[in-house]
Design a protein that fits this description.
Elements: E1 8-12, H1 17-26, E2 32-41, H2 61-64, E3 71-79, H3 85-95, E4 102-105, H4 112-121, E5 126-131, H5 133-138, H6 143-151, E6 159-162, H7 174-187, E7 192-196, H8 204-212, E8 217-221, E9 226-227, E10 232-233, H9 235-258
Parallel strand pairs: 1-2, 1-8, 2-3, 3-4, 4-5, 5-6, 6-7, 7-8
Antiparallel strand pairs: 9-10
Length: 262
Amino acid sequence: MAMRPESYVGITGFETGAQVGAVRAALPTDRLLMVGCGIHGKPSDWKPFKWPNRCPSTSRLSEIFLPYNNVLNVLHIHPDAGFDLFENLSRAHEAAGPCFHGFQLNTMWPSAKALVQYKKRYPGACVTIALQEESLDAVNWEPKAVARRLALYGDTFDRVILDPSAGEGKDINVDFTRRTYEAIEKLLPNVGLVAAGGLHGDNVEESLSDLLRQFALSTDAESKLRDFPADLLNMRKAIRYVQATDSLLRKYEAQRELQPVN
């Protein structure tokens, strides 16, 4: 990784291209929007699991991943255990359409070999490694162990998201996130850091301000932007979230630009 990737404001669970267009229009043109959809299973029978509205059929992905300016179109993939990850990623990549940019890997410590193969085939694709509960359990929730494990992946990934919530809307653990991102930043200074966990328009400032004083973050929101029991994306909540988050990121980006260089 030559340099840290651009920070984004992200939503996982878009259902239509029209939703993407409305959210993109609500943001300043210079803010990168991460457009996330879920995918679950193996290529022969990709089917929605417990959240079907967040996992559109592969035939619909090209209707959601559109060529808007300044978007990052990402599949949040939950591969079946034991299935060949490289094959899974390759088939999903081809199914996602011409405007697809890459994956977030919602699986416990993915195969480094598979990521090397994937990046060789698709060198321009972005890869985010998601650290959910199983991955954190495997290293006893020890921040330095997390960073050392990530370092084994070399330049096969661009960003890391610390996400024990895993789409359930659980609030972010600010202290653990800070300690973990300190360890990652020390060892891997060019990896992009993504914050998640119960984010919405009315809590991003309270949830993220302490972290943003220290880190240049991207963000991802999911469950708190949805209406239940139908589990549908609420556009008012989505637009409120992206606008509030963009304003917050700009505040701390401006402060970092004013800091003296030693």
